[in-house]
Design goal:
By secondary structure, the chain is an alpha/beta fold. It is built from nine helices and eight strands. Strand 7, helix 9 and strand 8 form a beta-alpha-beta unit. The two termini are about 35 Å apart. It binds zinc ion. The site of zinc ion (ZN) has 7 residues, from helix 2.
């Protein structure tokens, strides 16, 4: 049995034993009912944040960060609903394929903070990136997922931070370990890299990941995310001081 299918069955059984409801419509049963799954977006789009971090490669998002997709991301990340790994991985695979990166391709998840992984006992971004690679390989592509990036200490949770604060929080916060790179160079000499994340907000996380990969000589072909936040103009009555917090975003997702 293929690894992806076995994982899906295990995830579905675990969620069934725990007693599930659809995260999209609250119907009892599967954590994502067939009708909500059928309604998921299937056309990724470029999702340039405003303002765009200088030098950012094209970011692709499978969906806007709202509705069922937002509920899926949050439930997978915060409530560990593992059966959502499959559909989230499928959305990420669509976005990664849209980058048209030249194969072989390495999907590299942005690193989660060590404290978050310890607390959750699970790294959701790595999990959906690995699933996206399995799905793309099953479709005949030369794609693997590799955890190349590691967080440096001192990065705080990004939720609630504005664009400039996120950029400052993340500057120099990720690195590639030399031993990992040496092994990688032996096996995937000419691979192009796609940075993967669940939600694109200001683009600061993706830009920092791109910087850390380029710093060790890897070519970053694009960014792929499940979803991107919608950007709206701030309401006219808001004062200059208060909308300096994060005017571009409609809401702050629970990103790392
Ligand atoms: Zn549903």
């Amino acid at each position: 049995m293929p690894a992806g299918l076995l994982d899906d069955l295990t995830d579905a059984l675990t969620d069934l034993l725990l007693g599930g409801r659809c995260v999209g419509c609250d119907r009892p049963g599967r954590v994502l009912c067939l009708s909500c799954e059928a309604g998921l977006p299937d056309r990724p789009r470029p999702a340039w944040p405003t303002p765009t971090p200088p030098g950012l490669v094209t970011p692709w998002a499978a969906a806007p960060y709202d509705g069922v997709v937002r509920a899926m991301v949050v439930a997978h990340k915060e409530n560990r609903l593992l059966a959502l790994r499959g559909p989230l991985g499928a959305l990420l695979a669509l976005a990664a394929a849209s980058t048209r990166a030249r194969e072989p391709v390495l999907l590299v998840p942005v690193p989660s903070r060590r404290a978050s992984v310890r607390q959750r006992g699970y790294d959701p971004t790595h999990a959906i990136t690995a699933r996206a690679a399995v799905l793309l390989r099953a479709a005949g592509h030369d794609v693997v997922a590799r955890r190349l990036l590691h967080p440096r200490p001192g990065v705080v949770d990004q939720a609630g931070l504005g664009a400039a604060e996120r950029a400052a929080n993340l500057a120099g916060s990720m690195c590639c370990r030399t031993a990992v790179l040496r092994r990688l160079a032996a096996r995937h000499r000419r691979a192009s890299v796609v940075v993967c994340d669940d939600v694109l907000t200001t683009g600061a996380t993706a830009r920092e990941a791109q910087r850390a990969l380029e710093a060790v000589g890897l070519g970053v072909a694009g960014v792929a995310t499940v979803a991107a936040t919608r950007r709206r103009l701030p309401p006219p009555q808001v004062s200059r001081r208060s909308h300096s917090a994060d005017p571009a975003l409609s809401r702050s997702p629970t990103t790392d």
